[in-house]
Amino acid sequence: MNPSFDHDSPFNQIVASYHRARSAVEMFDTFYRHFLDKSPEIPPMFAHTDFPHQKLMLRESLLEMLMFAQTGSSRDEIERLAERHRGLNVKPEHYDLWLEALCEALAKHDPEFTPELEQLWRQAMRKGIQLMSESAT
User: Fold this and answer.
1) Residue 59 CB: number of other CB atoms within 10 A?
2) What confidence tens digit (pLDDT) does each residue in 8-33 have?
3) CA 49 from centroid of its chain's CA atoms
4) What pTM was computed for the model?
């Protein structure tokens, strides 16, 4: 066992939560169901979406966002994601709705999800969301 590995670090708690939640195959379906219901502006953005592919992209994006929050790496990937979103007319407030839907899906599919863990998720995701929001303007 690696003595420098801290299971209780915020980053490791988030990664463990991610793995617990995604082990439920419905996690990403739940996320999109919640997200699409958040605003009438959202469903048209997904009108021609290949959802199996979109769910894979979401999985990758979440990992990129986590890496960016932890190390600052993946900045280029986050900026490219923001550029794609700008082309879809994603507004900064849509990112807040995205984060709400993510937390709702995690709460449903991570059996160890707590309000404290939700705050860790929100803090981690806000760093990437802030970068994307700044890139969107």
Assistant:
1) 14
2) 899 999 999 999 999 988 999 999 99
3) 18
4) 0.90
Distance CA 65, CA 126 (A): 9
Give residue limits of the domains in the chain. 10-136
Q: Into which CATH architecture does domain 10-136 fall?
A: Orthogonal Bundle (1.10)
Residues 61 and 102: their CA atoms lie apart, in Å, by 12
